[in-house]
Amino acid sequence: MSETELTSGDFTEAAEPFRLFATWLEDATKSEPNDPNGVALATVDADGMPDVRMVLLKGFDESGFVFYTNFESAKGREILGSMKAAMCFHWKSLRRQVRVRGPVEIVSDAEADAYYATRPRGSRIGAWASKQSRPLESRFALEKAVAEYTASYPLG
Ligand SMILES: Cc1cc2nc3c(=O)[nH]c(=O)nc-3n(C[C@H](O)[C@H](O)[C@H](O)COP(=O)(O)O)c2cc1C
What is the pLDDT of residue 1? Predict the structure, then answer.
């Protein structure tokens, strides 16, 4: 049997979808060339027009799937408008997909702060400097913002 076929164990675990998801994500971590935690995140705007883009899954448990983004991005605004979203993982190396949809909750400040503290300095500066989803005034403006945040952001 190829590893992409479902086994009877999968059906037992299907009664516990989060456990099956954990197993599949772990399998993907071994077989995907990069970003096994990459997931398409779909949202809908105020006119009902759908939108989709990739994000990185940063945690999950029975209460939900966690990703981080900028509230001022298109996805941030769309989620704040509808408080609903859908996700689709696709692990090509395993020929498996997992689909998730439902209401969105904002993680606690403590959880977000704990995640932020794990990010490398360059990523924190990029997050501050990037006006996610909005047109770049110019490449120079972005580089200037990065330089300014780099200068003002304490090392550590
Ligand atoms: C593999 C991959 C992972 C990404 N992860 C994130 C993420 O975790 N959070 C995020 O805000 N954007 C992430 N992005 C960028 C988004 O796909 C998107 O380009 C950006 O957030 C603006 O999206 P929006 O205009 O729909 O809000 C990722 C892009 C790729 C290709």
Answer: 44
Q: What is the mean pLDDT of the chain?
A: 86
The residues, ordered by sequence, that sit 6+ positions from 46 with a Cβ below 8 Å of its Cβ are: 78, 81
* CATH 2.30.110.10 domain residues, the chain: 8-106
Which ligand 1 atom is at minimum distance from the Cα of 77?
A: 27
Give ligand 1 pocket residues (Cβ under 6 A): 35, 38, 51, 53-56, 67-70, 73-75, 132-133
CATH number attached to the domain at 8-106? 2.30.110.10
Tokens 């300014």: give the residue.
148
Q: Are 119 and 127 in contact (CB under 8 A)?
A: yes
Query: What's the burial of 37, exposed, middle or buried (CB within 10 Å: 0-12/13-18/19+)?
Result: middle
Express each pLDDT in 113-150 by its tens digit: 888 888 777 777 777 677 666 677 777 777 777 777 67
